[in-house]
Amino acid sequence: MRDLITVHDQASPASPDTAALLDGATALGSAVVRPGRLPAKDVLSVHDGTVLAALGAATDAAHRSAALAVTAAQLVGFESRVAYAPCHAPGNRTSRTKLGDPRSLNNAALAADALSKRGPVAVIDIDLHHGHGTQDIFRDRRTVFVGSVHGEPTTGTTARTVALGEAAGDREYLAALTEIVRQASRFRPSAVVVSLGLDTAATDLTGRVRVTRSGLAAAGGLIAALGCPTAVIQECAGAGNASPHQLGAFLTGLLVG
Ligand SMILES: [Zn+2]
Hints:
Bound molecules: zinc ion
Shape: globular
CATH architecture: 3-Layer(aba) Sandwich
């Protein structure tokens, strides 16, 4: 089994940021090309028809990203320990019935739904923006744990959600993630889905959370300690030029442990 596979499709990536991330990830491991769209029944196990209808002009890009995420889920544990899906836009704010901004399907939820057919799944969302869509989708699903560390908004801490305060750095971010991983560990997952936001990085324009590259590597190491096949789903790509390095730091931490 390989350590890392990056999944991409034949079509050009939708943004320069995504293209740079794809290059950064493929430098660390193998890449596979997989096709386009998911069967409608797979999407409808996570979203209802109103979400699909509301995608409008974003339909093709949204379905392509969803296919990347689900393919990553299908590969982990069989062909690789870690699979990375460079999705074109974040989807963690799209719930079962309501489309988020930007208009995307919930890629991480679709990956978790696919993996949940094998056993319990832990979704760990470390995007700057609260992944409330993912939490909504799995609110009543006992086989899927969803934990979140976010900095936007700066309020809303609950049992499985840590809202970081203004100008949080590595220390606060890693302390919060340690707690979420501890809870995930007690859930005894058979697989992990990471909603990876690079908009928590110190270089990001939002400046809300200031995580360094070594902080991102440490985050990968914390999640690696769960010892599970892991699908990494790209949420916000973060600020352009630095993002491939930050992604590399996270994935290296995840691979090395
Ligand atoms: Zn974000």
